[in-house]
Amino acid sequence: MIFDVNDGGVVFPGLGDASVYKGYNSEDKTYYVNESFLNVPLTQEKYIVDFPVKVSGDSLSKDRVLAYEINTELTTALSTQYKIIDAVIPAGKFYGRVRFELTRDIALNNTSVKVAFKLVDSPDLKVGSNEYRKGVLTWSNMLAMFPSTSSYVRTYNCIVLSPLTKTSTSAVYYSPNAHKAI
């Protein structure tokens, strides 16, 4: 399929949506969502996360089903730790979701896992701009990492006095323990 600018396309929120959707990283052109079971009652084994998507174009009077591909090389979560329930832009709406059901796992007390995926063409919607088609959902039982936008990462690097420059957007020095202390 070839994308036609007159047709609707599905993308993850980007820089223009940053006032509401703060997960887009322009450096690697990926939308990030970071979640945690930390605020979920211990008796609750499942946790629903809606990963945001939007349509570039008009809304329609019917639900539009989205298609995606899991990037198995970057995904560290086990198939028992998550399930994608649906991927849809509801009728009359410009924003929709890829809905994940996460399962609590004691292994996530000391580590995090992620699912990396990209939007692909579906019978209902083509993919819009290629720079807004990759997404990563990360979760654990610990404090969730801040959004991976450049301003948050730069601020964190300055606070923890990382050896990186003040303008670095690399999160290689991220530490959950340091994040808790802040």
Structural class: mainly beta
Please tally the β strands and state the result.
Answer: 11
Percentage beta strand: 25-35%
Mean pLDDT: 84
How many helical elements? 2
Structure, described:
- The chain is mainly beta.
- It is built from 2 helices and 11 strands.
- It has helices at 150-159, 176-181, and strands at 9-11, 24-25, 30-36, 46-56, 64-65, 67-70, 82-89, 95-103, 113-120, 126-127, 134-140.
- A 6-stranded mixed beta sheet has the order 5-7-8-4-1-10, with no helix packed on it.
- Strand 2 (24-25) and strand 3 form a beta hairpin.
- The protein is globular and about 50 Å long.
- The chain starts with 8 loop residues before the first strand and ends with a helix.
- The mean pLDDT is 84.
Secondary structure layout plus pairing:
Layout: E1 9-11, E2 24-25, E3 30-36, E4 46-56, E5 64-65, E6 67-70, E7 82-89, E8 95-103, E9 113-120, E10 126-127, E11 134-140, H1 150-159, H2 176-181
Parallel strand pairs: 1-10, 3-11
Antiparallel strand pairs: 1-4, 2-3, 4-8, 5-7, 6-9, 7-8, 9-11
Summarize the entry for a quick read.
The chain is mainly beta. It has helices at residues 150-159, 176-181; strands spanning 9-11, 24-25, 30-36, 46-56, 64-65, 67-70, 82-89, 95-103, 113-120, 126-127, 134-140.
From the structure above, extract its key features:
mainly beta, 6-stranded mixed beta sheet, 182 residues, 5-stranded mixed beta sheet
